Amino acid sequence: MTATAPFRNTRQTAAGDVVLSVHDLHVTFPSEAGPVRAVRGLSFDLKAGETMAIVGESGSGKSVTSLAIMGLHPRTARITGSVTLHGKELLGLTDAEMSEIRGEDLAMIFQDPLSALTPVYTVGDQIVEAIQTHHSISRSKAWQRAVELLDLVGIPNPDLRVKSFPHEFSGGMRQRAMIAQAIANDPDVIIADEPTTALDVTIQAQVLEVLKTAQRETGAAVIMITHDLGVVAGMSDRVTVMYAGRPVEQGSVDDIFYAPRMPYTIGLLGAVPRLDATNKEPLATLKGNPPSVVNLPPGCPFVPRCPLAHSGCREREPELETVGPDHVAACWENERIRTDSLTSADIFPTQVLAPVEKAVVEKVDQEVVLSLENMKKHYPLMKGAVLRRRVGTVYAVDGIDLTLHRGETLGLVGESGCGKSTTLLEILNLHAPTEGRIVVFGNDTASLKRADKKRMRRDLQVVFQDPMASLDPRMPIFDIIAEPLGVHGWSKEKTEARVMELLKTVGLEEGHANRYPQAFSGGQRQRVGIARALALEPELIVLDEPVSALDVSIQAGVINLLEELKQRLNLSYLFVAHDLAVIRHIADRVAVMYLGKIVEIGSVEEVYNRPSHPYTQALLSAIPIPDPTTERSRTRILLRGDLPSPANPPSGCKFRTRCPLFEGLTAEQRTPCLEAMPPLVTAPAGEPVALESSGVPQRVTTTVPEGGVETDHVVACYYARPVKVL
């Protein structure tokens, strides 16, 4: 990086020196209901080269804190306390004065890079602007620096892509461009606000690696704001846990994960599905929701959700108390937690739902409820406004075989664009695919008439990813749940009784029936969506990323609910998710999809403990585990680039352009990978090898036994080998 030296920060900050100090920070916004106390008394010191994570549920004050440090709040916000950078007070500076600091000494990586980057300027122009704002340098040198920065953060062909506009980049590339812009002037502090929330796990792993590289290059201190405790375990040195605008626990990452002293922290850790979990016990559930920070009652704000709460907790809010070296917690019961070694299972015991009657005819166990046979869904790629003509084909789903049995959960995983949602839509549409067959409850969808489809939709229901978008905001909850009952001719009396029964089943109160969706939290709205899906007593429920938009504490409650309902009602689930930790917790079998094809399928235990396809191995290695010791010792498989376009897939094996194994093959060994997509074969036997093991495996020639696709562990790779990634 020849042009890097002139941009090195001239301030000499030794490792371990405090660069940013926040003391008794309060942020209050005016509102009609009263003052919104978004941040209440936050203090911390951030040292050079250190990474501190700020964690907590939505509304806890994480992002408000970051914007207060950056000086980006509106003038109506009342900010008190102290924020000093190298001893210089930032609060009270004018916007012009802060503009000299932002981008030079203090930089921020925003959650949504598409809205943070200006769409009418190229990526290179925006990086050049960030450089020339703070340095007297020619445009040619600034442009050279922009190219070097894009190369540093791993964007291919940086000399060409520097001229691209943000919309021409994928989500992962836009986030990398945002990181490049943030580190352009060698800042002392980088604030990363949920930098990986909307990304696939493989892209998330790449972005986190880029962020580590950026920190090494600049020596900057990093504030990582996230709800992903796995990311915290792998990236952070210290952690601040916030609740209701206030820090409730602060300490080293090992203290927080291995010796938490605040029930809220313990609950968050217990609510996380773990990729390395060997059992499927219910997750810890924090009942209720975070309180409004308008007119908070006296006492600890966590009291309504805390099983350890007593009368003293309701009288006075606990202050942060030293509980260990550089470890503080705000809880009246922190000593009891230590002496009794209380865990999430002790503090937040899981409750089992009462049995629910289901008026359905008992079926034979292991009955097939859904079958896909060489199912394909292709879309024409058209061009022209007046004289439209076909110029290509989008191979969204390109020949897959799946079988789902009664009472089983099949997880369908893969990156965005691999064909998961298209597969679900084809099943739900109940019509003929482009090629192949879809058989639902023994009926070929190609031959269904309108009346047949209406009848079948009683037994086939869906829960969508975004509960707010899938619920009509103009209808009260009662009408939303009752709508499918009315369509199928239920009487008014039976409908009312059924709606009240469903509300109880999903953990809501009867009094909620007259409220509208906007009056509920995200987790409650998702429960309403589940209640609606259960209304007609279905046999198969399709779930499209049902927990991806929820806080970890709310997510745990929904996952527990789905598991309980499956057992009580003998439901079958087709569960689509990109979070493989969630899939491990809830699924019986898992199918891994890449660019419209199934590349590996088998039982959860087999696929997770003996992943044999390089893509599956990369997915599993990319999922962070909420355990600092484990994360420090793990090796990541970083895939190159992004998913190819389904309109122009690679020849032969569709994964070969990103395959780590393919890169190590000789020209002769690559021939089958270039010529044809490998068929599904029985996964190789033997002990899994370590990730670091070198050498090219032998070509797999074992064929799949008759009927083995349903139950056996099979993989579509010419050189498959089981690898230990957990």
Overview of the molecule:
It contains 27 helices and 26 strands. It is an alpha/beta fold and 726 residues long. The protein folds into four domains: 220 residues, P-loop containing nucleotide triphosphate hydrolases (Rossmann fold, 3-Layer(aba) Sandwich); 96 residues, no CATH class; 171 residues, 3-Layer(aba) Sandwich (Rossmann fold); 121 residues, no CATH class. The strands form five sheets. The chain has an eight-stranded mixed β-sheet, sandwiched between helices. The longest helix has 18 residues.
Which key phrases capture this entry?
single chain, 726 residues, Rossmann fold, 4 domains, eight-stranded mixed sheet, 27 helices, 32% helix
CATH topology title of the largest domain: Rossmann fold
Measured as a percent range, the helix fraction is: 25-40%
Rg, please? 27 Å
CATH class of the largest domain: Alpha Beta
Tally of extended strands?
Answer: 26
Outline, from the CA principal axes?
globular
Q: CATH H-level name of the largest domain... which superfamily?
A: P-loop containing nucleotide triphosphate hydrolases
User: How far is the first residue's CA from the last residue's CA?
Assistant: 36 Å
Count the DSSP helices: 27
- Helix and strand composition category: alpha/beta
Rounded average pLDDT: 88
How are the strands ordered across the major sheet? 6-7-8-3-9-10-12-11
Task: Give start-end ranges of low-pLDDT stretches.
Answer: 1-5, 353-364, 706-711
CATH architecture of the largest domain: 3-Layer(aba) Sandwich
What fraction of residues sit in β-strands?
Answer: 15-25%
**Total separate domains:** 4
Sketch the major β-sheet: 8 strands, mixed
